[in-house]
Design brief:
homodimer, alpha+beta, Thiol Ester Dehydrase, Chain A
Chain lengths: ~150, ~150
Amino acid sequence: MRFYEDISVGDRQTSDGYRISKEEITEFGEKYDPQPFHTDEEAAKSSVFGGLVASGWQTAAICMRLHVQSNEDTATQAGLGVDELRWHRPLRPGDELRLRTEILDKRPSESNPNRGIVTTGHEGLNQDDDLVVSYEATALVQRRADSSE
Amino acid sequence: MRFYEDISVGDRQTSDGYRISKEEITEFGEKYDPQPFHTDEEAAKSSVFGGLVASGWQTAAICMRLHVQSNEDTATQAGLGVDELRWHRPLRPGDELRLRTEILDKRPSESNPNRGIVTTGHEGLNQDDDLVVSYEATALVQRRADSSE
């Protein structure tokens, strides 16, 4: 397991890619974000996007998936929150999203000696290396039982 | 249609409730947030949550759905971003989430006279009125063609 003590500010990762289909965009849109530019290919043509695009919440959720897959061995206890979530460019059917992360900050929890608080910068990029989505996520990570850091 | 000019700072709404099932939690978890406390009822018992809980991204996505349903007539063009997204309490199987919103800020776009920028505070509450999730979302809203505001 990778604990709080094993994480260093400045650590970087780049994930594999995740290709999104039209069906996945409309399925998520119908369930969680039923605006025409996420659910209706024809209506989307007259939107500011000029066509179907993924919900911004879906692009963030895909980043979460890519992050979890790249950090399966990390002892994450819970997510606390996210700051500065920005949707820079739309994600369109057939686009491939990959995630670039960097550890921005870590500090021990003041209320619980068994955990630390880690802030990670996330950037979701498409196949052309254009920035699609970015945010900073803060999570609780378990400390080593024998830690004296 | 409800345009930028029809929105006032201080406007408030409360949505209907949305009840979440165990199956919906694990389905979203397996697809977008495959951590044991979102996907595996047994493993979740030994997590800090003591049982299965919805992904924080799913609680935010449900808030989005409730917001869209309450504002189908608003001429929203695109979401720009979200600040201060916080997960205060877990959402568990059978819980019902409802959304309370308040318009916090509005200003004309400097780059495009056909749109304005609106910031809305969101609070997702469970059936006991406990705060589950909160954030501030900023979106582009179309202006009336004949507006001189």
